[in-house]
Structure formats: structure tokens, C-alpha cells
Amino acid sequence: MKKSLMLLAAAAGMLLAACERTSPENGDGAGGGPSGGDDEPGISVPKPETGEMTDARDGKVYGTVTLGNQVWMSENLAYMPEGEQDTDISWDEPRYYVWGDYLLDSESEVEREMARASLEAYGVFYNWWAAMDGDPAPAEGASARGICPEGWHIPSAAEWDGLVTYLSESGFSSSEEDPLAVAKALAIDEENVWMVDPAEEEAPLETWPAVNPLKNNASGFSGYPIGFRACTGTDVWMHSLYSAGWWTSTESSNIEGLVLATRMYSTDPYFRTGSDFNKGVGLTVRCLKD
Fold first, then answer.
1. Which one of 92, 126, 272, 288 is CB 3.0 to 4.6 Å from 130, fit for a cystine?
2. Predicted confidence (pLDDT) per residue in 241-262, tens digit
């Protein structure tokens, strides 16, 4: 993990991708009470129940975490159909990426090692077509398995909202004044991973994932700021060290042809569940148990 985190250092200056359009009015999460940790008096949050599941397709074992009535993978999905790794872009066909476009079948042993480390640490970056694996966007109240293992599915925007509501109502906010501030509870608790934009360094807030990161991750969700793979422009891998995000199975109601993704930023206390994304963007997947 530490080796692969070093891969992100070269991406520290990246800017937000051109194909991301966030809708603030639809993107705010719904947070809860402080998630400052056991060393802070007067703070009590439910201890998440953790476990494991095995993907029968490739034998990979994933951590899981139970939050309320939902069971989530606590790692990004890393299932790659054999021979399907891509480096090109498509807005209407499935694409599967490894962070940095390191090739798993490269002639270079060093590059193969980098690809394996990236895959192990961050999972696969899927465009929406690959994430859905041929399934259409489900009707309200239904679910789509997509690329997830049997018995699991791609979370809908409503299910992501349910996660945030649980955190809100269960005391996971990093702010006593703002119950919406749950990003720290979902962000990985490692130093030198979440970076602060130089433009915002003068006024850091304790509610940001990038500030006092060892107080992050009260939920056990373990979100890493690995950005996403852009679907247009000259910069391919965008916003690493500054943002995390995962696909939903829900199509946008704001802009035809776009879909919703979740977003979490290094300098934002909120977990945002209503960001409009082009289907060609490469983004990670967290599966939710049926």
C-alpha cells in the first residue's frame, strides 16, 4: 500500500477534470455528530462491524463494514475481466483502467509491478458502462448488480444518501455545529495522503479530510483520494490526492446522458452524492450487499 501511494505524488498538481460537473444543491450529504476519535471526551459513535467477503470470480478477499442496515465493501472493487484492461477512452463502450495506465501485461517487469500495486491498492477504474456491465440504470427501489460479485450491487444515489443519513443520525460528523460534515468519517486515516490545495492553505478547517487525517475514518469506509480518469482533454489522471469518488447506478435528472457519482474532497467537510458525470469517466466502484 505504501509503495503504491507513492505513485500519487507525481499527480499532486492535477486540476479537476473537465468532464466533472458538480451540482452543489444536489451534492451535499447529510452528516451527523463528531467523529474525532476515542481520545476526545464526550464523543461516542457506534463501532462499525467489520468482516470479509470473497469474490468467487477471482478469489479476491475484500474487507466489509456494516453501517446501519447496509453492508459495504471497505475497499474498491478490483475485478478485471481477463484481457480487458484499456488505455483508450470511450463514452459509450465499457472501459477498464489501472491507475496511471500501468499495463498488467507490459513487457517491462517494473511496469507490471507498478500495475499490480496500483490494482491492489486502488482497485479498477471503470467507466460507467463497465461498472454497470450491461445492466441499465435501475428503476427507483430496484438495484443493478453491474460488475459487482453475486449478491452485491452498484449502489444507487438513494443508497449512498442512506449511508450519509445513517452517519448523520449516528454521531459521525466532524462538526458539533454542522451535522452534514461526515466526509472525515469516510476518508482514509493516513498522513500525507490527503493534500490541501495551496490556494486554501491559509485557512484550514478541522472538518476537512486533509486536516488532522489521523482523526478520519471513524466509519471504517476507508476512502482514498485517488481522483479519476478523465474522458476528455490532455490531462488523463485527474485530482489525485485531492478527491475520492465512486459510481452510482442512477442517471442524472439534471442533464440528459449523464449519471450521478459521489465525490469527497480534501478540503470539503461534506460527502457529495449528486455530481453529474460523463459516462466515459473512469471511476472506482464500491459494492453494496443485496
1. 126
2. 999 999 999 999 999 999 999 9
